[in-house]
Amino acid sequence: MTPPLLELSGITKAFGGVSALLAVDFSLTPGEIHGLVGENGAGKSTLMKIIAGVHPDYQGEMRLNGRHARFASPREARAAGIGMVHQELSAVRDLSVAENVHLGTQPVNRLGLIAWRAMRNGAAEHLQSLGIDVDPRTDMGALPLGMQQLVELARVLFSGARIIILDEPTSALSPPEVERLFALLRRLREAGRSIVFISHFLDDVLAICDRVTVFRNGQAVATEPCGAVDKRWVIDRMIGAGHEGLEESYLSEIPLHSRPDATVVLELDGLTRAGAYRDVSLCVREGEVLGIYGFLGSGQLELARTLFGRLPAERGRIALDGRTMRLSSTSRARRAGMAFLPESRRMMLFAAEPVFKNVTIAILDRIHRLWLRPGVERGIAERQVERLRIRPPRVGRLLGTLSGGNQQKVALAKWLTHLPRVLVLSEPTRGMDVAAKDDVVQIVRGLREQGIGIVVVSTEPETVLSLADRILVMKKGSVVREFADEPVSKDRLLAAA
Amino acid sequence: MRGVTDWLHGQLRNVAPFATLLVLVSFFWAASDSFATLGNLENILTQISVTGIIAVGLTFVILCAEIDLSVASIANATGIVVAYFTAQDASVTIANVPLPGWAAILIALAACFALGAVNAFGLTRIGIPSFIMTLAMLQIAAGICALLVRGQIAYAVPPLIGTLGSRSLGPVPWIVIVAALFLLVGHVVLTYTRFGRYVYMTGGNREAAEYSGVNVRAILSAVMIISAVCSGVAGMLGVAYFGSAQQNEFDTYLLDSISAVVVGGTSLFGGQGGIGNTIIGLFVLGVLNNGLDHINIDSFLKILIRGLILLVALVINVYAQRMRTVQEG
Which of A102, A363, A418, B72 could make an S-S bridge to B254, C-beta 3.0–4.6 Å? Predict the structure, then answer.
């Protein structure tokens, strides 16, 4: 076997006492595409950030071309020929393709001005040599996401990278775009470049990679040639099946109980929005929690926004209690009986305002006519604070002074005084401690008993498993699987996505 | 002790303008015999009235983290419109259209409402940033002024406007009473009504307001129109107060009204402040302008001093915002 281009041994990294990587070995040979899989938090990204110079302090040894290497900054890593394409593309949307390709290395003429013609020609040549068919004068922002990604890859190559790290490169791509990307990767492999391919999409990993390394709980648990393994094998390694370290939570089955007889509250029919989701049809019943699970970029977060009038669908029909609705704005959606909790606290809370104003903002038009009545408002807020056990229980406190979990509860509280018909929760337990998560689960269960329809969208299997009565799995914008009235486990969810 | 310091930090945006006002008043009181008299208080009040009426509307806009650069132009245009529809002296050679006083006032009000609505449309429907949209409106309203008066000066205004702008009720000028009423109503609306709450919440976190189902577009449209109508009223009374309607006569009011709101401590980032702050800001500017006249200072230096005061206010404004962010952190 060829000697490795990059070799890491015994890499250990801890964040504030919590170890993120434990004695990890990893190697990359020239002309290899190496897949990296594992759950969120398993350690893939941390390892790549060490290679890319983002985390300079770690234990262990990194060797590049057989020589000891240690990067103190991303700049040093770049200089050593390591390039990274992030999932959230770092391209400058307002600049042209040519400028993006040359980012940081613009050619200048004798006067020190940018040599535009040289830059355009250089970019055109470079893109052509990679087989990327795009006019270098186009604005980056005007290109479809898949093309932006290829251009970004071209930029990394242009800056001389020998090792390219791709973070979730296929999550937002359509099948033909994935094919185009793969074709390019194969060409790069033939040219002797080495590629690290991080992805949740196991099918994609197995289709393109030469070897795959599986991460679990900060350890690299297995590395095998892709030809020798299948998807089942990878999932088993990811969740620890077949070893003594078997993790109960992955395989433990949770019974689902859908309510096929209950009245349908919300019905979607053929909902489509280009670049986000397509042809989504589903229904939510009274007293039911519908979970929608999918990897980041699968379209479920966008779908949730559509249900609250924030991101209109281009085609399809939304009906609430049998009546077709036009959800063209959030205020219209709210008045129609929809409610929404976005995935980030910043998007739903007023940190500089007291708790009670945060609780009542969504129902002001129901509790006041023209004049505000602070007594009424505080009373309502106090009841919610007591019911949700928000700490400290003082409604006059500025919201920003509360802990994260309590802020999240305040956000939830604003939809609880006048119940909506349908409550859409996006990542409702993200970043919460166990106790706070439990509280949220209890609150959602309580709401279900009161007969409203609840939709929980998440990229974390645990979230939908702990809350949902029925689960839909979305993949690249489409609903691909429904789990109802059957036991479901994290293992099965991962396999479906 | 820590508690008190924290509280002071949190209140910086309210305390600093008030302290500034106290310092200025004490200074001029000590430096000049003619400053601290009842007659001069009336002067100051009259001098800040037109700015005050404009600043009420501007406070709504700035609370929403937007800006309106067209206030002075709209004031000017509205003042000229009301004169245009009033019978002028034979010596004024404007092709004007004399109408009854009430009709002229209604047309003028409709005009400023319409200009505000155009601002609102550009901001909320087309998506032009308010800074640019109202910059264009500044030009448009100036163009309306130019077309109507064509370099001439009109003098007559409807009797009601004449009274409110240049007469007194007993010892108190009507224009001061009108300004006080506007400030009062503005304060009541912002503090005690549902609409006022929406204004603060929209300014505090627009995305969160949107995700709470607040009709942010409607709120922004309303504040742009409120701003234009306040400016229009200020423009009509201003014309009566100056005794003439001509082009460019409100030019200094743009900077003055923005200064009043910001010096008072209303956050340029939205959501913090209010009419109380604007009142303090108006007095700081009024006392400063007036006081500098009393201490016999180089009138060219006055301009520089005002600029410096505005700069200090901006520094405090941004600093107070940072304090808050740190406290919330």
Answer: B72
B213 → closest Cβ in A334, A346, A352: A334
Between the two ends of chain B, the Cα-to-Cα distance in Å is: 21
- The stretches of chain B forming alpha helices (DSSP H) are 2-10, 12-31, 38-63, 71-84, 101-121, 130-149, 159-166, 174-192, 194-204, 206-211, 216-242, 251-263, 275-294, 299-328
pLDDT confidence of residue A100: 84
For residue B192, which residues of chain A lie inside 8 Å, CB to CB? 371-372
Measured distance CA(B118)–CA(B140) in Å, rounded = 11
Chain A residues with CB-CB distance to B212 below 8 A: 330, 334, 348, 361-362, 414
pLDDT at B17: 85
**Residue bearing the bigger pLDDT, B11 or B291:** B291
**Could you say which of B197, B200, B328 has the minimum Cβ distance to residue A400?**
B328
For residue B1, what pLDDT band results from cuts at 50, 70 and 90?
A: very low
Interface test with A, best of B6, B211, B217, B323 (most A CBs within 10 A): B211
Mutation choice for A interface testing from B14, B202, B212 by most A CBs within 10 A: B212
* Calpha distance B276→B56 (Å, rounded): 10
Measured CA distances, A321 to A283, A330, A337, A452 (Å): 11, 18, 10, 11
Q: What is the CATH number of domain A6-251?
A: 3.40.50.300
Q: Among A44-48, B189-193, B307-311, which is the least confidently predicted range?
A: B307-311
Question: Would you state the pLDDT for residue A433?
Answer: 67
Percentage of chain B modeled with pLDDT above 70: 95
Greater model confidence, A458 or B52: B52
Q: Is the pLDDT of residue B317 over 80?
A: no
Residue B85 has pLDDT above 50, yes or no: yes
- How many Cα atoms occupy the beta-carbon half-sphere of B66 within 13 Å? 35
Q: In sequence order, what DSSP letters do the residues of B35-95 get, joined into one string?
A: TSSHHHHHHHHHHHHHHHHHHHHHHHHHHTT---TTHHHHHHHHHHHHHHTSPPPTT----
Say if CB A286 and CB A308 are below 8 A apart.
no
Task: Find, in chain A, the residue whose alpha carbon is nearest to that of B193.
Answer: A371
Q: What angle do CA B158, B162, B163 make, to 5 degrees?
A: 120
What residue segments make up the domains of chain A, in order of their start?
A: 6-251, 254-496
Check residue A245 and give its pLDDT: 40
Rounded mean pLDDT, B141-155: 90
The structure's pTM equals 0.79
Could you say which residues of chain A have pLDDT below 50?
A: 243-247
CATH topology of domain B13-322: ABC transporter involved in vitamin B12 uptake, BtuC (1.10.3470)
The reply to whether residue A352 touches residue B212, judged by beta carbons under 8 angstroms, is: no
Do the Cβ atoms of A371 and B193 come within 8 Å? yes
Q: How far is A337 from chain B (nearest CA, A)?
A: 10
Helix (H) or strand (E) holding A380, with range, is helix A374-387
B104 pLDDT above the threshold of 70: yes
CATH superfamily of A254-496: P-loop containing nucleotide triphosphate hydrolases (3.40.50.300)
pLDDT given at position B7: 65
Distance CA A240, CA A248 (A): 9
Most distant CA pair in chain B, distance: 72
Chain A residues with CB-CB distance to B215 below 8 A: 329-331
Give chain B's mean pLDDT.
89
Question: Does A197 touch chain B if contact means CB atoms closer than 8 Å?
Answer: no
Q: What percent of chain B has pLDDT over 90?
A: 60
pLDDT of B2 > 60? The answer is: no
Q: Touching check for A400 and chain B: CB below 8 Å?
A: yes
Q: Which residue of B has its CA nearest to A341?
A: B211
Q: A295 and A459 in contact (C-beta within 8 Å)?
A: yes
Domain ranges of chain B: 13-322
